[in-house]
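Re-run requested by the PI after the first attempt was lost when the workstation crashed. Everything re-entered from the original request form. Ligand of interest: S-adenosylmethionine.
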Amino acid sequence: MPTDTTLDTQAGAAVYSPWVLRLYDAWVLGISNRWAWQCATTDVLLPFYRKHVGARHLDVGVGTGFYLEHAGFGPAQHLSLLDLNQNSLRAAAARLGRADVSWFVQDVMQPASALGDRTYDSIALFYLLHCLPGDMAAKVCVFEHLKPHLAEGGTLYGATILGDAAGHNAFGRKLMSVYNKKGIFGNRGDTLEGLEQALRDHFADVEVKLHGKVACFTAR
Ligand SMILES: C[S@@+](CC[C@H](N)C(=O)[O-])C[C@H]1O[C@@H](n2cnc3c(N)ncnc32)[C@H](O)[C@@H]1O
């Protein structure tokens, strides 16, 4: 499927200034995940992240690098970071504190040319899809772009906040409204079924599980 060049992908990344990144872990990973999206970082998302990391790992949409820091990587594991926003890449790389991390400035809705012919045993997309504009049919290009970089037997996995049909609580509805208006989120129409179908269109072995209002998925 061709990449839709009319969609504005900047707003979903540009918000992550150094100042916003300083507040991110407390506001998003602490408060919002538990009380708005009903999917606690320490109980659900971090264990899920850790479970699937492979020997060569690519994190797409790195944010502050919280998951990378707490993933329990050994020194032999190869790490790559990909993000449209250089503030996020700098913050995550600094947090990892390793000299051997590769990082790529790239819009994931465009063909992943920055990655060249690199392949990975695990590719993580945590809280990325809901930041992208368009419906699931537009976002599916992300799987097309990353699939060639998934090694044989590797796992692409992630988590994304679902849209209005998920039935958000009052706190979640307020955040959904503000973030979607500002273009920080583009997920009003995202559904579990739509995500599952998009993954099945590209991968043979797909699992999608709902935790609160967050879909956690693996694809091989
Ligand atoms: C909500 S943060 C997620 C951070 C982290 N993965 C987490 O789960 O907490 C979204 C990240 O995706 C990046 N991002 C947003 N749109 C992007 C795009 N089109 N291409 C690449 N990265 C993008 C943002 O810059 C930001 O670092």
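Saved to the shared folder this time. The chain is about 35% helix and 20% strand.
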